[in-house]
Amino acid sequence: MSLTVRPIGADEHLAFVRAQRSVSFLQTPAWGSVKTEWRSESLGWYDGLQLVGAGLVLHRPVPRLDRYTLAYLAEGPVIDWTGDIGAWLEPLAAYLKAHGAFAIRLGPPVRTDSWSAGQVKEGIASPDVRRLTDMPSQVDPVGAHVTGWLSGAGWLSQSPEDGFGAGHPQYNYEVPLAGKSEDDVLRGMNQLWRRNIKKAAKEGVEVSQGSVDLKAFHDLYVHTAERDHFTPRALGYFETMFAAMSAEDPERIKLYLAHHEGELVAATVLVRVGGQAWYSYGASSTEKREVRGSNACQWAMIRDSLAAGCDVYSLRGITPTLDADDSHVGLIQFKVGTGGEAVRYVGEWDLPLRPLVYRAFDLYMTRRESVRRRGR
């Protein structure tokens, strides 16, 4: 197989995405419009005249060396990862180097391992288990193939021990939906989740959709950030995100709002592409947490994902820690209550194309992270 890589238009890129069952929303043309601080480019892989693969590339310039960029394909590209990977990635590297990239960073949308909800629960309870990787897993041979090829071809893993790096998380929590009914999904949840969903309904929590209420969502989101000690995104980011993604597909992004007696108590953002749905952002009030608005929002999103025929509902990133004394374990405990499974992906990998520039960029990022940590 001899493939060529060249730019494609947004319409052609979107048509290719729509023909696939599973594509990350980070690989849609609209995502390039959301990430306004990066220059975006849609690339296509051609076998003769046929478009057989596509990728959204975000170009980040090097400080003081603007003619060079880091070419980033988050959770992509959308190619066949099961066969000759070199036939896909070698022409990509040649194209990007010729157009000023000093390195490529990509995150293949390929699993390496998974652990059931029962395993995760047992691991948290066991004094001998500290991490997901301390337990046996369901191994995906495609993930092993991709990891082995990238390592052998000189790509550098960017996935840290905690699973969270500069890009997107390597570990995620996902609820399989294919072939399941609402009752099936409910039965897979733990007793606390089922009870909280019922309590929200009994308390009269009402969940509605409404992107026009982005300001209300953002106010609650900022409140959540202050309470939980993270840096919130600006309202303008969400306005851009909803405008760009809704223009591409009116069903792409939805805002869910949970009200109790007229008060907004929780809000979430759902993104859907083809057969996959993602819980992307969430916010909740400190008051009235007992009415379980967050659980009501999650259940509404899961039900809508089932109705849309999705195969997977993703609750996004987790850390691999199962140590009961680790502050991060609460996140996985919350998500494991939905049933489903913890999943490790191949993670993000870099290919230096201009080693000297790459080393300078790596040093810059290391220093910036050090400053950021000192400023916490």
UniProtKB/TrEMBL annotation:
MF terms in GO: aminoacyltransferase activity
A Pfam family annotated for this UniProt entry: FemAB
Gene3D superfamilies, A to Z: 3.40.630.30
PROSITE patterns linked to this entry: FEMABX
Domain of life, per lineage: Bacteria
Keyword Lyase: no
Cell wall biogenesis/degradation listed as a keyword: yes
GO biological process: cell wall organization; peptidoglycan biosynthetic process; regulation of cell shape
Assigned keywords, A-Z: Acyltransferase, Cell shape, Cell wall biogenesis/degradation, Peptidoglycan synthesis, Transferase
Protein family (similarity comment): Belongs to the FemABX family.
Protein name: Vancomycin resistance protein VanK
Higher taxonomy: Bacteria, Bacillati, Actinomycetota, Actinomycetes, Propionibacteriales
